[in-house]
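FOLDING PROBLEM:
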Amino acid sequence: MTEPTTGPTGEPTSEPTRELTPQPLSGAPRVEREFTVQTRSQWSMVLRRFLQHKAAVLSLALLVLIAIAAFAGASLWHYSYRDLTGDYSKPPSWKHPFGTDASGHDSFAQVLRGAQRSLEIALFVAIAATFIGTIAGAVAGFYGGWRDNLLMRLVDLVLTLPAIAIAAVLGHEFGGRASGWFYIALVFSALLWAPMARVIRGVTLSLREKEFVEAARALGASDSRIIFRHILPNTVGPIIVNLTIYVAVAILAETALSFVGFGVRAPDVSLGNLVSNAATAASTRPWLFYFPGLVIIMIALTINFIGDGLRDALDPTQNRVRS
């Protein structure tokens, strides 16, 4: 039952009083829904901008075809990379599309195996080095102080090391083992994470003073939650772009290491040691040299074009600045 209220003159009015009833706190779910919708719309815009980069899309399709051929085609091809076919030093033909070497190995099967091994090394190095560099850079940028000084001095030390020379020494020690490629990938990962750490540290330094980070601190969020829920998601752009760079760098580094004889060694094969083994016969059996070399160039170029497309999609201002 409501009671009549009085107006400014003291006379009662017929307007009843409004009872205040508690309202459900629906702000937080609405904020979460709005954040989810905004995130989805941002990623859809990124995808749209990437699809407009024709060279990147074609490069991605070509890289996927190379990966499928390397990982699935090797098991479907009627020759193994270890098989001796009895055809010695044959030029490319329908039977042997990439020809054969002096021992009778089918070069197409060896190139497929080499691409598989080289991609495994490159992907392992890219993921491991990106992970180490991202965590180190985020910790250094977020905490600052002695942690920042210690990690940055470690980064400076790693950057001064001759990576190829160290990898050659360790590759000579471990490359001939059954899982030699794995040890080579570990060595490259330990030597290539430092540039990523510097990039993520710089981004983290600019993010840690933002309002959303201060709000998370005020709400009592732990440091790890702030880093993984609020800071690292805002570094996805640099992480993805540098990840593609690491893949290309690892492919070329493994090729260089195997070319000088300190990478993957027989009986296993990689694109680098295929090029190395065929270098002396490039004038007499050029197909042994050119086909694995062409695959290396295609992989490196496609990854670079994909990186350009991702950079333009994640940061469209870069494209405007260049144009």
Notes: Confidence is low (pLDDT under 50) at residues 13-36. The domain at 109-323 is CATH 1.10.3720.10 (MetI-like fold). DSSP finds 13 helices and two strands in the chain.
